[in-house]
Automatic annotation (TrEMBL):
This is Carbohydrate ABC transporter permease. Belongs to the binding-protein-dependent transport system permease family. It comes from Aquibacillus rhizosphaerae. It holds the Pfam family BPD_transp_1. It is found in: Cell membrane. Its main location: membrane. Residues 75-281 form the ABC transmembrane type-1 domain. Keywords: Cell membrane, Membrane, Transmembrane, Transmembrane helix, Transport.
């Protein structure tokens, strides 16, 4: 170890110090939010909390979960829509991308052009709401799945990845008697696992963080409420009832919280579950983006 350290150059030392600095400034905001969420509300109003709580407590989290008895149902619904939406979105996007990557598909350019147009031009919120209503998706679970089923960006990324797969693999499979469906599931999908994992991460984060569609299309159905929507309502109530934190001057009752504590606790609740998924997909993430973006 000492011999290896002696071989370090000045550039190596500077690079290590720089990476440590980047690590610190990257982790500090998250650690600061976590410390405030676990600190006593009265003490938080005084300020000066950095990466460690001065008066450790779970009161902020108890206030959130105690103020809304529907959070457990909302958490289950968020997990359900994330899992179903991610799986169906990956399958639909991958199948469409495979179709567009086929050189013998007659309408390849036309369909690709229509997909690209949707990335620049949108019908707007009102036409979208009218479409959802006429399809009968208001207050239905499908409203979380169908509108996000196909994403032009995801399809283009997967298609670019598939374009790098040698055509000889498909030709040899056809010689062996495989049809298009077999080629897709036995050859294309296993080779596309890196980009599929990347798209799955995009879809999972989008589904988990989504709350506006619940507000627009499913807020009258309590069984379809999501965790993000319930946390948003709690945050709005905290802002209305709490006022400005700095004006309180630590005059908060001991068994209460303040808006800043509520915000930080909600941020942790909304962030941690999706962070637990990321390590399982990280090894595919960079590879999927890199190979999907470069065409040989």
């Amino acid at each position: 170890m000492k011999k290896d350290f002696k071989k370090w150059t000045f550039f190596d030392i500077v690079l290590v110090l720089f990476m440590v600095f980047v690590l610190i400034i990257t982790l500090y905001p998250f650690l600061n939010i976590l410390a405030i969420s676990l600190n006593n509300a009265v003490d938080t109003a005084k300020g000066g909390i950095h990466i460690w709580p001065r008066e450790f407590t779970f009161a902020n989290y108890k206030e959130i979960f105690g103020s809304n008895d529907r959070l457990l149902q909302a958490f289950f619904m968020s997990v359900l829509r994330t899992v179903v939406g991610t799986v169906t979105g990956v399958i639909a996007s991958t199948m469409l991308a495979y179709t567009l990557s086929r050189r013998d598909f007659v309408f390849n350019k036309q369909v690709g052009f229509l997909l690209v147009i949707t990335m620049f031009v949108s019908g707007g919120l009102i036409p979208e709401y009218m479409l959802i209503r006429h399809l009968g998706l208001i207050n239905e679970f499908a409203v979380y799945i169908l509108p996000m089923l196909i994403s032009a960006f995801n399809v283009i990324i997967i298609r670019s990845f598939m374009d790098n797969i040698p055509p000889a693999l498909e030709e040899s499979a056809k010689i062996d008697g495989a049809n298009d469906f077999t080629i897709f599931w036995r050859i294309i999908v296993p080779l596309c696992l890196p980009v599929i994992a990347t798209i799955a991460l995009f879809l999972a984060v989008g589904q988990w963080n989504s709350w506006f569609d619940t507000y627009l299309y499913a807020r009258s159905n309590e069984n379809l409420t999501t965790l993000q929507f319930e946390l948003m309502k709690i945050l709005d109530n905290a802002n209305i009832s709490g006022g400005d934190v700095t004006s309180q001057n630590a005059q908060v009752i001991a068994d209460q919280t303040n808006p800043q504590s509520i915000k930080m606790a909600i941020t942790i609740i909304a962030t941690v579950p999706i962070l637990l998924v990321y390590p399982f997909l990280q090894k595919y993430f960079v590879t999927g983006l890199t190979l999907g973006a470069v065409k040989s």
